[in-house]
Amino acid sequence: MRGDVRNTQEYCAVEIAMEVLGGRWKLAVLNLLLEHGTLRFGELRRALPSVTQRMLTRQLREMEADDLVVRTVYGEVPPRVEYSLTATGTSLRDVAAQLDRWGRWYLDTHGAPARAGNESAGEGKEGGSGGAGKEGEEGEESRKSREKVRAPAVARRGPEPEPES
To answer: Whole-angstrom Cα distance, residue 23 to residue 58?
Structure first.
């Protein structure tokens, strides 16, 4: 995990914002919670199919530590864990909307952003939110093996268990 935000030097507030909001999935999670309100872990995972369970858990823990989300655990069987935005998280609504507008403008004027290892800007990115990823960077076998690993979790019925802290 990363260091405490309070240890960041105060001379650049943008660095603090990047420390809190940086991370491939944090803004995607923020947007989902702004749009849908409270969501369960499994709902977030299904809405962001490219993120691993471990990475989503890490991003949610950092967001909770930074007071962007609140994690509510219900003492039920099966266990139920929900995430919702705090007042601090909700205060980012305008920032997220501006970033969304800018991202759409950039895509319209420049096309898909370049990715490391790609020959052109349009390679390696499929449409959709959350930055679909690195299709151009990895082999077909790697992608297929990931799909095989995920298949049982999709077929399973009932809520997905939340990894323990």
So the answer is: 10
